[in-house]
Amino acid sequence: MTLLTHPSPGTTSSTVCPFCNGGRTHEISFNVTNTGTEILYICHRASCGKSGRYFVDGDVPEDLFPKPRWKPQVRTPSKVELQQLIDKYHLTPDELSRLRPQMCVDTKQKRCWYPVFGPHGSTHGGVARSLEPGVRPKVLTYLDDTSYHLGSWYLHTSGVERIALVEDQVSAARLSGYVTTIALMGAHLHHDLLMFLARHRVKHLFIALDSDAFDKAVKMSQSISPYFPKTTVVPLDVDIKNDTRAPTWLIR
Question: How far apart are CA 39 and CA 218, in angstroms?
């Protein structure tokens, strides 16, 4: 089976690009056209631009077949590595226990592994984040099931009537000391997660993305506010992962 689904002859279909995954927002930028004799495909994202063609009855290009997915090997961090992570984010023992970090052993760069937790505590893979400056990509994500789109959950004893959305797992582990927090692993709220939250009747949703994504937080709030009794966009002067102060905007 190839990465492409053929539309009917004479039609074009659009989907998320199988090569770049539509970037962080999973943009629907990939067009596939069936001319009747040829299949034409192109991604319209400037940072990708993948394109090609092949005959309907001809050989399919090799790059359109799924490649084996990278699955990390992880280990327990050494005392020195754990202390480096603690010092970097000034993590408390409680925050560290919620984050449950490990280390990747099969990447060229030094990467910390943060498990992805589902809403019921099960693990669904993880995120390998570089600890070295200037490394690209900064983050490598592996999910056991690529259809999982519910983020990484960090539950608080207060339950799920109030939930905060943040970008990354370190921020979520810190903020979950005050409220149930979900790491989106980016700045995009997937439709699956939105529907999950709406079905569970969340009463107050806080959107606390990093300071450089405030405009995205505002747009997100505008699009999802009809689903919840109350949504609040939190303007941060310091990203939560780097801020050891109590979140006065949450507890007042």
Answer: 39
Mean pLDDT, consecutive 10-residue stretches, the chain (252 aa), reads 74 86 78 91 86 83 68 93 96 98 86 96 94 83 87 96 97 98 94 95 96 96 96 97 94 66
CA distances from 102 to 105, 110, 113, 190 (A): 10, 11, 5, 26
Asked if 129 and 107 touch (Cβ cutoff 8 Å), the reply is no
3-class secondary structure, 179: coil
Compute the distance between CA of residue 159 and CA of residue 150 in angstroms, rounded to an integer.
Answer: 17
Alpha carbon distance 58, 40 (integer Å)? 13
Pair of tokens at residue 156: 């608080």
Nearest CA to 194 among 235, 171, 163? 163
How many Cβ atoms are within 10 Å of 15's Cβ, its own excluded? 13
pTM of full prediction above 0.85: no
